[in-house]
Write a structure and sequence with these properties.
With 72 residues, this protein is mostly helical. Helix content is 86%, strand content 0%.
Length: 72
């Protein structure tokens, strides 16, 4: 293979361009998958915090009512 042949240079150029395109597409796909995992983990963490907060509020309200000497 001689790089002095214009057809060889053109084929190599097309192959390099295709390799760049494939790398770009893979990079975009990897970014989407990473974002999807991040959002799923964030959603699960926020749900956990909400449940812990709900339980804490219930415990606080129960304790405030138990200590009050005038309970109706």
């Amino acid at each position: 293979m001689a790089l002095s042949d214009p057809q060889t240079v053109a084929v190599l150029g097309v192959l390099v361009a295709l390799a760049g395109l494939v790398a770009g597409l893979f990079s975009q796909f990897a970014a989407l998958v990473s974002r999807w995992f991040f959002l799923r983990e964030r959603r699960d963490a926020l749900l956990k915090v909400a449940l812990i907060r709900k339980e804490g509020v219930a415990l606080r309200n129960e304790a405030m009512g138990a200590d009050d000497p005038v309970v109706v």
